[in-house]
Each structure stands twice: as C-alpha cells, then as structure tokens.
Write a structure and sequence with these properties.
- By secondary structure, the protein is an alpha/beta fold.
- The protein contains 7 helices and 10 strands.
C-alpha cells in the first residue's frame, strides 16, 4: 500500500488520475485492451475530471460500474448511472461500459454482470472510502468471504446519512435502503486499485482503514491486504493518521 498526500482535492484528483491512466496504458500495451472499474460520489469529482483528459486509447477500454441504488431511475439526480454518463462515459469513447441497472430485478442484474466480469479481469479499480469505512456499498460488517462478483446489499444509516449530507437526496427517508454493489473480493481481484479519499469527514474512516486491524467492521481495511493499492489523501482526510 502506498499513501500519496496532496495539498488540495484538485491535486489529489490529478495524481490519482495520472497514475490510473498509466496503469490503463500499460495494460493496453501488454494485452491490447484494458478493463477498469469506475466509482462515483463526490470524492471522485476531481479524479474523473482529470482522467478524461489523460492520453488513453479509450476504444480499447471496457469499464464496469461499481455500485448503484436499487429502485432509482436513471433520471434521478442521485443515479450513479446518470453520474457516470455525464462525468465520464459521454466524454470518452469507451469500447463498452457495463452499467448496473437498479430498476431491474436486482438478483438477475448481479448474475448477468457477474458472468461478464468473470471474463474481464480488472486491471485497475477506481474506488473511494465511505464515512462508515465502506468499500463500494459494502457497509459494515462487510462480507469478506463471498466469491459472487456483485451483491444486493443493505445500506446502514450512516451510509445513508452520508448520501443525504452530500446533497444527493432531500431527506433521509428518500435515500434507498438497498443497493447493488461489487463485492469486496471482486474489488480485491483487481490488478491495481486507485483509492481517492478527500475531506475531513473521511478522516476517521481513513485512520481505521489504514492503521486499524483488518476487519469487516471497517470494510476498507481489506485494502491493507492488496499488493498494488494507492491511497490518495488530502491534508484533511489524512489528519488523524499517526504517520502524517
């Protein structure tokens, strides 16, 4: 695990995107194509804004959606499909993007995407860490054992309050209680992981994930067990770390 500090969210995003683009280019050079996972949320704004500017042959890239709410229309302001289309997919010329459709039968969606991603080993996954320490929508206590690539999960109150606090929903009751998420083990199968985590409100989760024990109660702590993970922090999100 490599921790990369930045003075601002913009610098954090630039560093994460530059390294991620390098990994994608290397995969294309060695294999002729690359497979990636793309996250959403406010923590990814700066990274995605810079990633689309990088020199990458996107026509050779297949991308997978990390997570999505169950029961949310693509037209909803909080839809991650909408987020990804507007901030990433429509700005590059991907070979293919595999969306999670939370309006369809959740179990069938998980099965279909699971079959596809098993045939597309991931070169780099772009992820974040939630205020409750979650990785994707794997809230604590996360399932560290399942080999299923995608799961239907329940969202805990702290996760739902984060979505409310970030302005995606008008009230807590409007935040869905279920989502479809890439599983922890599937994320960990990625050859490389780029984790972008800005803001003071993430400091406690960052400390638990990076300096605490590896436990399902802090799902992102599993990143300690990956050989090629870069954690991008700003001065606020790194403020509680002993080593900083």
């Amino acid at each position: 695990m490599k921790i990369v500090l930045s003075k601002s969210k913009r610098e954090l995003g630039e560093k994460a995107a530059i390294n991620g683009a390098r990994i994608i280019r290397e995969a294309i050079y060695s294999k002729g194509a690359a497979n990636i996972v793309v996250a959403t949320g406010s923590s990814q704004f700066e990274m995605l804004n810079e990633l689309i500017r990088q020199e990458v042959d996107w026509s050779r890239v297949t991308a997978f959606h990390l997570d999505e709410y169950v029961g949310i229309s693509e037209k909803h302001p909080a839809s991650f499909r909408r987020y990804l289309k507007e901030r990433f997919v429509e700005k590059v010329s991907l070979h293919k993007f595999h969306y999670i459709n939370g309006e369809s039968d959740p179990r069938a969606v998980c099965d279909r995407l699971g079959e596809i991603i098993r045939k597309h080993p991931i070169d780099v996954a772009f992820v974040g860490i939630g205020e409750n320490g979650h990785l994707a929508f794997n809230d604590p206590p996360a399932d560290f054992e399942t080999e299923e690539p995608y799961l239907v999960v329940s969202l805990d109150e702290r996760c739902r309050r984060q979505q409310l606090g970030e302005g995606w929903f008008p009230t807590l009751s409007d935040v869905p209680e279920r989502a479809i998420s890439m599983s922890v083990r599937q994320i960990m199968k990625s050859e490389a992981i780029i984790c972008s985590v800005p803001d003071l409100r993430k400091a406690e989760a960052v400390k638990g994930a990076l300096e605490g024990e590896l436990t399902p109660l802090v799902p992102a702590s599993v990143l300690q067990d990956h050989e090629a993970v870069w954690i991008y922090l700003d001065k606020d999100s790194a403020s509680l770390l002993h080593s900083q």
